[in-house]
């Protein structure tokens, strides 16, 4: 499946404090946000829809991803080419 970027406004000082606090624990903010969104998806999206999307993803060829710096975070999901 193709990854999308979600632009989200958040206070810059709070973001930096959060990032520093998580890094002190050896945790990536991006990883935490990804886990949160995955959990939200699993709790919110109907199971038949999840099964359909998983089936569809298995049938599609893999999309190569690249990483591009965007501020202090990485953006993935851009088609390589």
Structure description:
- With 81 residues, the chain is of the alpha+beta class.
- The protein has one domain (12-60, 67-76).
- Helix content is 52%, strand content 16%.
- The radius of gyration is 15 Å and the shape is elongated.
- The relative contact order is 0.16.
Question: Helical content, roughly?
Answer: 40-55%
| Major sheet description | 2 strands, antiparallel
SSE-based structural type? alpha+beta
Order of strands in the sheet with most strands: 1-2
Q: Which regions contain 5 or more consecutive residues with pLDDT less than 50? A: 75-81
Shape: elongated
Task: Evaluate the radius of gyration.
Answer: 15 Å
**Strand residue percentage:** 15-25%
Number of helices: 3
Order of helices and strands: HHHEE
Termini separation comes to 17 Å
Mean pLDDT: 84
Number of domains: 1
Q: What is the count of β-strands?
A: 2
């Amino acid at each position: 499946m193709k990854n999308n970027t979600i632009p989200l406004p958040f206070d810059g000082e709070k973001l930096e404090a959060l990032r520093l606090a998580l890094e002190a624990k050896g945790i990536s903010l991006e990883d935490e946000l990804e886990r949160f969104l995955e959990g939200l998806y699993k709790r919110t999206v109907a199971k038949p829809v999840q099964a359909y999307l998983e089936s569809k993803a298995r049938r599609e060829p893999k999309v190569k991803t690249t990483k591009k710096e965007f501020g202090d975070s990485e953006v993935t999901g851009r088609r390589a080419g």
